[in-house]
Amino acid sequence: MDKITRKTSFGQWFSPINFSLFEEQVKTMKLDFYTKKLTTEPFLKLLLFAQLHEIESFHTLSDCLFDDHLLKRD
């Protein structure tokens, strides 16, 4: 049995999500109608990231987003 790392676990959480259907539902229900920057899909990814890293609050999540490792692009 392979050891599951955080990176592969994070990828596995997104694999069952059909983002084309997800985007269609967001448009149909007008969930992002008044949203300019943080739309539904990135917000979902942030929530899953917070769950995976056991982040306790939005304030702590905000602090984590300015971490150099997260801001670094591949």
Automatic annotation (TrEMBL):
Organism: Siminovitchia thermophila
Protein's name according to its UniProt entry: DUF4372 domain-containing protein
Pfam families membership: DUF4372 (PF14294)
Origin: domain of life: Bacteria
Stored InterPro entries: DUF4372
Stretches assigned to the DUF4372 domain: 5-69
